[in-house]
Design brief:
heterodimer, A: 153 residues, alpha+beta, Immunoglobulin-like, 1 helix, elongated, B: mainly alpha, binds protoporphyrin IX containing FE, binds copper (II) ion
Chain lengths: 153, 561
């Protein structure tokens, strides 16, 4: 093996390890793990299961909110939320039918909503504005209209 | 009797070496390649419809809606074009380097061809009838017509027949050539078929045991997460097999086309072995933002996915050295003078060369989007579509195109004329420019949040969505250019197969560098397969058991289109 190859492979190896360490550090030390969640729910009984029997927004702290939201062909419940700037919002999301996506355009909030599971996503809205919320997983013929907004005032 | 047989066999070998091609084996490969390029043509036309729809210039009619088109595009290109090409190419490689296919292997090849063709036709009919508008991922609980799933089963059975044929061929050769190394192209083929069998097992379990009983109404509900996970164990690996197929040409064919020698044979085989062992476990990187999978499991999978970056980086170095060495031997001087000595006007080199270049940004983008936090930025956005048009649409497809300019004349007993070569060079530049343009626009639109798998929409003229429009126009423009490329490529294939002047074409396999000895330990396929199984078990047993034991109540079928 040539010296230049050893150097190249060492750099390659180092780069991959660096990515791993950065990912791990952010996920486990800084609490920036990807969206997920391990709570389960019966996808055919979402309407009768707390807290999804009462979807909506609730203040749970100083400028901190919890949003309980269901996704279904081709809408979000509740629609058109409003929160003050700087608010941290904890979304609890589940699907009543097929797989959907949940993405707040212009932020890093992005996760899959799989029937039977509850996805947790947390987002702090620093800037005021009207944020576009979309379904980013194909869910059927009306997928392209499945959207709502979050107003940050 | 034995002796006569052996004599006859060696005569046949000689004939093969001289003529270079066994006509019966050639017919098999020709059939696979023809299907492959018809799929490219149809898939490309569907791609055009998608591109101009997303540019906002075309509303698709209700009898051919966007998602139907997208389902067909995905399946035709990621499964049919790539899969049929891979099998046709490696079967001719096995035939050429192992002294002709055994009659039973050829038969298995034809059976595989028939089964996959039949399955493909069923699938395509269902998609065109709007009975299977589920995209190539067919995530339950969205449910297609059962015939769609039966079609998939036939495709998989066909693939298995071809895998088994390849294994028989290789085992037979090894038995007759004890102590010898499998020729390098067949070594690649063995690795690719091992992976192909390994990954299709997952999707077979998904379709046979989860989806079919449910779609036939024998059970009421399905385990959605399990199906998804099995799918990605397959889907992720499949695209990596197409990549491994392209890599085989970079290592084995390209050095010959440029008049050079092979890279270090042992290290090449190490790359193959590494790609085989570590590949299947990357599947979860498609599920980084899924619920129901713990962060530790996801982290392990990110690690396993990134590990594949290492053999790829080894490859980058190897190819660079091979080209530099060949260029310098031809008298290229200075830091970059050797570059001038490479045959830029030869499509058999130019196309795979650009394919390799594309893998640099493609691989870098892949590493970036595999890490947790960056994945959340781009997951399910157009970024991802840009990423796999670089990896598949450029690295893989352009390598396959480059191969077609010698493989098709080779199997058809024809030659590549200078005029056809020139057309190939033009097609290569068109394709490269168009893909770069389209992929750039897709990556950028994705960073701004534009979702993938979504027909043209402005979300009620929301400002953010309107901001994507310029990039979407570029995508449409790229799609038009690409379609021109597809048409030229298809024309070239038909011409080379049926109309080019008769003559003999070489199957270009580079010789070893003098003095390069291969470590015989690389031949221990039994060990590699066991390691593969161990790695797959490490990655999948815990999460899959968890998904079954801790499953939520299942989902009934839904048809949302
Ligand atoms: C004429 C050339 C091509 C054009 C114009 C084109 C265009 C497109 C467009 C616009 C999308 C859809 C984006 C979306 O809404 O998500 C797409 C998706 C896709 N393309 Fe292509 N593409 C071309 C060639 C290829 C090739 C050669 C391959 C692979 C070998 C490929 C594989 C795919 C796959 C797998 C998808 C994703 C399907 C899905 O999300 O379900 N494309 N393509
Ligand atoms: Cu959707
Ligand atoms: Cu993958």
């Amino acid at each position: 093996m040539h010296k230049s190859e050893k150097v190249w492979l060492t750099i390659s190896f180092g780069m991959i390890m660096l990515f791993m360490i950065a990912t791990g550090y952010q996920a486990f030390a800084l609490g920036m793990a990807p969206p997920g969640g391990v709570e389960l729910i019966d996808p055919q009984k979402v309407n009768e299961t707390a807290p999804f029997d009462q979807p909506g927004i609730k203040q749970i702290g100083d400028n901190e909110y919890e949003v309980v939201m269901t996704l279904q062909l081709f809408s979000f419940t509740p629609m058109e939320l409003e929160v003050p700037a700087g608010a941290t919002v904890h979304f609890k999301l589940t699907s009543k039918d097929v797989v959907h996506g949940f993405q707040i355009v212009g932020t890093n909030a992005n996760g899959m909503i799989v029937p039977g599971y509850i996805t947790d996503i947390t987002q702090t809205f620093h800037e005021p504005g009207e944020y576009l919320v979309i379904c980013n997983e194909y869910c059927g013929i009306g997928h392209q209209v499945m959207a709502t907004t979050i107003k940050v005032y | 009797m034995e002796a006569i047989n052996a004599n006859a066999a060696s005569l046949k070998n000689k004939a093969n070496e001289i003529l270079g091609v066994n006509p019966e084996d050639a017919k098999l490969t020709k059939s696979f390649l023809l299907v492959s390029f018809v799929a490219l043509l149809l898939g490309g036309l569907f791609g055009l419809l998608q591109g101009i729809n997303r540019a906002g210039l075309l509303e698709l009619p209700s009898w051919l809606n966007y998602y139907q088109v997208l389902t067909a595009h995905g399946l035709l290109l990621i499964v049919v074009f790539s899969g049929f090409f891979m099998i046709g190419y490696f079967y001719s490689g096995l035939s050429h380097t192992l002294g002709g296919l055994l009659p039973k292997v050829r038969k298995l090849g034809w059976i595989g061809y028939g089964l996959s063709m039949f399955g493909t036709v069923l699938v395509v009919i269902m998609v065109l009838m709007n009975e299977a508008t589920v995209l190539f991922t067919f995530y339950p609980p969205m449910m297609a017509h059962p015939i769609f799933y039966f079609g998939l089963v036939f495709v998989v059975l066909g693939i298995w027949s071809c895998c088994i044929g390849a294994f028989i061929q290789v085992a037979d050769w090894r038995k007759k050539h004890k102590g010898q190394h499998l020729p390098i192209l067949s070594f690649f083929a063995t690795g690719a078929f091992v992976l192909l069998l390994g990954c299709t097992l997952f999707v077979a379990v998904e379709v046979l045991f989860l989806i079919l009983p449910w779609s036939l109404g024998w059970v009421d509900t399905i385990n959605v997460m399990l199906a998804r996970t099995l799918f990605w164990a397959f889907g992720h690996t499949a695209v990596n097999i197409w990549y491994l197929t392209a890599v085989s040409a970079w290592y084995v064919i390209v050095p010959r086309v440029i008049g050079g020698t092979l890279w270090n044979d042992t290290l090449t085989r190490v790359v193959v072995i590494a790609l085989v062992i570590m590949n299947i476990t990357g599947g979860f990187h498609h599920q980084i933002v899924d619920p129901g999978i713990s962060d530790t499991i996801k982290y392990m999978h990110v690690f396993m996915s990134l590990a594949i970056g290492f053999p790829s980086l080894m490859t980058a170095y190897a190819l660079f050295v091979v080209m530099e060495r060949a260029g310098r031997r031809k008298g290229g001087k200075g830091a970059l003078g050797w570059l001038k000595k490479l045959p830029w006007g030869d499509v058999r080199f130019l196309a795979p060369f650009i394919a390799m270049l594309a893998f640099a940004p493609a691989g870098a983008g892949g590493i970036a989007q595999t890490t947790f936090q960056l994945n959340a930025v781009v997951h399910n956005t157009m970024w991802v579509v840009g990423h796999f048009h670089l990896t598949l649409g450029m690295s893989v497809a352009m390598t396959f195109f480059g191969i077609s300019y010698w493989l098709i004349p080779f199997i058809s007993g024809r030659v590549l004329t200078p005029a056809m070569n020139k057309l190939g060079v033009i097609q290569t530049y068109i394709w490269a420019a168009a893909m770069v343009l389209m992929a750039f626009a897709m990556h950028t639109a994705g960073l701004f949040g534009s979702p993938r798998r979504t027909s043209y929409t402005t979300y009620g003229d929301h400002a953010a969505a309107l901001g994507w429009d310029p990039y979407m126009l570029l995508i449409g423009f790229g799609a038009v250019l690409l379609t021109i490329g597809v048409l030229i490529q298809f024309y070239a294939v038909i011409h080379l197969m049926f109309f080019a002047p008769k003559g003999q074409t070489e199957f270009p396999i580079a010789p070893k560098e003098p003095g390069d000895v291969t470590g015989y330990w690389t031949e221990r396929w039994g060990v590699w397969v066991v390691l593969l199984i161990i790695v797959v078990a490490m990655a999948y047993v815990v999460p899959i058991v968890d998904m079954i034991v801790n499953a939520p109540p299942g989902s009934p079928p839904i048809r949302p289109w």
